[in-house]
Amino acid sequence: MEKSVIVKNLTKKYKLYSKAREKLLDIFLPKSYGEDFYALKNVSFEVDEGDVIGFLGINGSGKSTLSNIIAGIVPETSGSVETKGQPSLISVSAGLNNQLTGRENIELKCLMLGFNKQQIRELEPDIIDFSELGKFIDQPVKSYSSGMKSRLGFSISVHTDPDILIIDEALSVGDKAFADKCLDKMNEFKDRGKTMFFVSHSIGQMKKFCDKAIWLEFGQLKMYGDINEVIPAYEKFLKDYKGMTDKEKKRYREEANKRRATLDAATAM
Fold it and tell me: Most buried of 20, 99, 117, 253 (most Cβ within 10 A)?
């Protein structure tokens, strides 16, 4: 089976500054200012065509950062991501221009994906109908609720038929009926052998929809494999983690970072 996504030693580093002055000094002076923060560090995995993969991890583990890098929205600091075909990210307001109307956003997004005006005219009615936005389609997106933005973004993405679909918490807003309709559409893509990544706090949805799971812990790949193996391990961790005090959580994070640093040093030797 061919690989649709290959991630090798992926690292994303940000700088944290305590003062705005530090950022300017870091730009113009040779000395390094600010604190390095690794949203992802040395993450590697391969995905087969047709895989449906859930991203697991507590807040701040790097799930959205990884989604954005695979989608080509955010550049990596080092490492590489190879994708076979066109990826598309669906998240609340992702890729939408708040100053434009919903209809104008459809046209802009489709033009950016290489569709001509005739193709856009043919797609537009189906996109609008699926979004259920009605007359709001001609209102500025800045007036939309988060659920309405999610509807528009999801509808555009699924109707442009991407090769790789990345859904980042897009079903966590809005009503259940629309979420169910989106899941039906995603299952249609699944039946067609599309590669999909699914980021959600709903483990129940993930169990029903995904075949495999990637568990990220503080920016590092903790576990990758069959959904029925990864989720029970993650649920056990989550139960233990929620029972920790803030001090214990801090200590756990520090120890995890130390283990990661030791592993990185051993790998570099």
Answer: 253
